[in-house]
Amino acid sequence: MLIIGHRETRRVMEGREEEILSLVGETYRLHEAGRTALPHSVFLRFPDSPRDRIIGLPAYAGGDNAVAGMKWIASFPGNVARGKERASAAILLNSMQDGRPRACVEASLISARRTAASAALAASLLTTEGTPRGMSLLGCGPINREVLRFTRAALPSLREVVVHDLDAARADAFIAQGGADFPEITYRRAASAEDALGAHRLVSFATTAGEPHTDLTACAPGTTVLHVSLRDLTVEAVLGAQNVVDDADHVCRERTSLHLAEQATGGREFIDAPIGALLDGSADFRRDPERTAVFSPFGLGVLDITLAQWVHEECVRRGLGTRVDGFLPDDEAGTAPATAS
Predict the structure, then answer these.
(1) Residues 114-143: pLDDT tens digits?
(2) Which residues contact 20 (CB under 8 A, 6 or more apart)?
(3) What's the CATH code, domain 2-110+301-323?
(4) Domain boundaries of the chain, sorted by first residue
(5) Given CB 3.0 to 4.6 Å as the disulfide criterion, which of 139, 154, 195, 222 pairs with 206?
(6) Is residue 260 within a helix (H) or strand (E), and if so which, with residue range?
(7) Percent of the chain having pLDDT more than 70?
(8) Given this model, what pLDDT does residue 85 score?
(9) pTM of whole model > 0.85?
(10) Are 279 and 121 in contact (CB under 8 A)?
């Protein structure tokens, strides 16, 4: 068993945005082609703390480098006020030869970057601007920081960013860090959410909202909205937009904005296409430059495990991580596996 911690994961992923974008795109194509297995995520909730949850995402990706595993990710929004990250995660990878667990990977960065890469791919596919100059970010946490990182890689013309957060100090800290990370970009803190929505025709929501709280009337025609946090938009906003998802069966659950829209209309006709079909060219979809487009990714576990496998392979190649001998019953020399009576 190889244990790969956060430090090793960050080290092998640093500066590899284009490779990660390519890997996420290829995984979406595999999913669209029916070469994945993706049961519904399992949500563990707590009666005494309803905002907190832990989610299990089992997944399998086929192809030339098949992989199976599971991500176990906790979301505790109260951590932010305590100076801790909201989310923490681990991924267990299994051997496709005998099913045995072979690696445990710290996955908070993997989760953030696969989310950001999927959003950046959607931005590049859906933008109505040939060379977009600006982007608005609503929610100034680590997810939107990664969304900016990957969108900048996918759309290198970006030069202006407007940010909004309910916590002004958090927004200011985001700008300070952004100036250090990407000095070629200029930043502005929006006076309101409406100000941010109207500032640019590329918008990303990455908040901790549990219920819909905003519409898109402040957006200019042709705006592309990356609805990463899934519960920000009203039903009316969803129904008024062109909607692209990662997987309709997954995203129309757990009281996401699209789930509420499905309940309100009795169907999913408002969903125009999955991103995999856009990537492989099979979608019957035309981007209307006069309408808002919304990308709502539920966050498919198959992205996590393919990226975790890539990290694992890089760590093995570089000799990184901590190998634990004796983890399985027959790992120790001369020890036979126990048999059930």
Answers:
(1) 999 999 999 999 999 989 999 999 999 999
(2) 13, 113, 114, 117, 150, 307, 310
(3) 3.30.1780.10
(4) 2-110+301-323, 128-296
(5) 139
(6) helix 257-265
(7) 97
(8) 82
(9) yes
(10) yes
**CATH superfamily for domain 128-296:** NAD(P)-binding Rossmann-like Domain (3.40.50.720)
Alpha carbon distance 262, 74 (integer Å)? 27
Q: How far is CA 152 from the centre of its chain?
A: 16
- The dihedral built from the CA positions of residue 92, 11, 304 and 207, taken in this order, carries a sign that is positive
Within the chain, what is the greatest distance between any pair of CA atoms?
70
DSSP secondary structure of 223-283: -EEEETTSSSB-HHHHHTSEEEES-HHHHS-TT-HHHHHHHHHTS-TTEEEEHHHHHHT--
Structure tokens at 199: 């500032």
pLDDT at 77: 86
* DSSP notation for 4-30: E-HHHHHHHHTT-HHHHHHHHHHHHHH
Average pLDDT over residues 262-270: 98
